[in-house]
Hints:
Distance between the termini: 6 Å
Strand content: under 5%
Shape: globular
Number of domains: 1
Radius of gyration: 20 Å
Largest sheet: none
Amino acid sequence: MKFLVLLLTFVLQRKLNLTLSRQHDQWARQFLEFFEAKFPVIRHNATLYVVIAILLPAVVLTLVLTLVDDVLFGVATLFVHIVMLFLCLGCGYLKQAVELYRTQWEAEHYQSAFRTLESADIFIKDADKLTPAEVHYQATSQYMYMTFQRYFMVIFWYMVAGPVGALVARLAHVAGCESTTYVPRQVGIVYKVLEWLPARLLALSFALVGNFGETIKSSLNYMIDPAVGALKVLQQAAAGAIESMPAVPAAGEANALRDSRQLVALRDLLNRSVMVWFSVIAILTIVGWMS
Length: 291
């Protein structure tokens, strides 16, 4: 059932360009801000912060799933799965924003392109101090990382642990990466643990649908190093899979046409990787390794 629910939700998300996941993240931030205001002690207690930010909503969702189990012959459970995936999966606004960014970049309207990124929640630190080439490198990296966070990571944890897994993946990201300045630094460790395996699997997907030899050569050492973060692993893998993709910030002036082609190549690489993931999940479902 999970594979069919995932496939249906993914298709609808892409077709309708829904932004429910963005709204979900805003609700999660407001939830955390409420507790931070009412109970300031959680700002300095990582364990309590994790309990409130991640475990409490997960427990509530688990109770809901238990209560609706077998209600209306499973229709109620199916409804909860679909709703949670709509809330956690995807970011419909990202596709249009990146395409607009690419168009503006081709026309060398760099300032307009930078503002377009911010509309898609892609914020580049100290962008005013960077060259356009350096900003573009950061933009493509953040686009890749955001796609990983909102699609591949949610897909992985949904197939492993159902809607509870998808919810935990998104809440951990909000708490560890997007929350207020009060969040204990240790909370980010939870998210790093959750993204470790999906990032390596996506890097391997890049190898399968891109330049296999170069991808493995450029990213293998990073993939097997438990201390390397997901973004660095994906950057190295993408640099191997796409010939024009640099592994480090580009030096010199921006090349609008080259940069645009690079972004298209990255988009296509991610799309092909999605197809690989769905194909593998379908095969595992058929052989009974996933339900």
